[in-house]
Write a structure and sequence with these properties.
Elements lengths: L1 E3 L1 H8 L3 H8 L7 E4 H16 L4 H19 L2 E3 L3 H11 L9 H12 L3 E3 L3 H4 L6 E3 L4
Parallel strand pairs: 1-2, 1-4, 2-3, 4-5
Length: 140
């Protein structure tokens, strides 16, 4: 399984050449997805843009971006929080040095570890601190 971090999903949505090329060349037998945490981060940003729109033009743009993001996410497997990822999260929280990486990133790491997935991210600085996680950067 390959899980795309929020930053990679955003770059893919924006049409980033290298990210798009890598996604298009993923082995069809490989499960390609993201986490429920990334889904929440992406949709929260889209909903905030919609709610803060100052005029009709911004409202329409916000709705288009929301619809586009939802369509993209519909094409990805969404790895959710299950008993294994919750237990992994509890274990990772015991590592004092991991508190620096942030709650959402720790949740994403837990889901990736519990699914024995490779996490694709640009945020190697934080995720490299997580023991046993498999990482790739498809951007730099």
């Amino acid at each position: 399984m390959i899980l795309l971090d929020t930053d990679i999903v955003s770059l893919y949505h924006a049409g980033h050449e290298r990210v798009t090329a890598r996604i298009e060349n993923v082995d069809p037998a490989e499960v390609l997805g993201t986490t429920v945490i990334s889904l929440a981060e992406i949709l929260r940003a889209r909903f905030e843009f919609l709610l803060k729109a100052a005029d009709g033009a911004q409202l329409q743009l916000a709705q288009q971006r929301l619809d586009s993001s939802q369509a993209l996410l519909d094409d990805l497997h969404i790895a959710s929080v299950d008993a294994a990822s919750a237990a992994t999260f509890d274990g990772l929280r015991r590592h004092k040095h991991l508190k620096k990486i942030g709650h959402a990133d720790l949740l994403i790491a837990s889901i990736a570890l519990a699914n024995d997935a490779t996490l694709v991210t640009r945020n190697l600085k934080h995720f490299r601190q997580v023991p046993g996680i498999k990482l790739e950067n498809w951007v730099d």
